[in-house]
Amino acid sequence: MASLADHIESYIKQQIQRTPSQVVVLNRAQLAEAFSCVPSQINYVLATRFTRERGYVIESRRGGGGYIRVVKTLPGRSQEVAGFLKRIGSAIDEQQADHLLVTLIDHGVLQRRQAQLIKGIIQQELNDFPQAADRLRASLLRAMLLVQLHEVEAKERR
Length: 158
What we know:
The protein is mainly α. Helices cover 62% and strands 10% of the residues.
């Protein structure tokens, strides 16, 4: 008989397979409620069954507006994806973000035009929230890079 962890793992994998980008954003509390378990059980499944070695990158933010983003990666690329995400952290200033975008261009993850678009979008969005600029910049950059990195991997799969 399958364990609760097996059911949670299966559900998350089904959600990932249903999305063309193979990126799924989940809410820990909602998952726990759906499976009648505590949120730490969700954490356990993510930590043990969605590892880098198995080809997944997990990004999470706790709190009221918290989320869990699960990204399916190609073997070997998950370390690179995780490294770029780690460099962003929870906050990143404009100069650090610019350096990261240049690095992504140099690694062939982004084209120059894509980096310019990302920078432009971030600057546009930051105009309304100058007091939280570094945190918002990090959040936007992570979200856009996850999508872009997944697209690069999808091309490699073909």
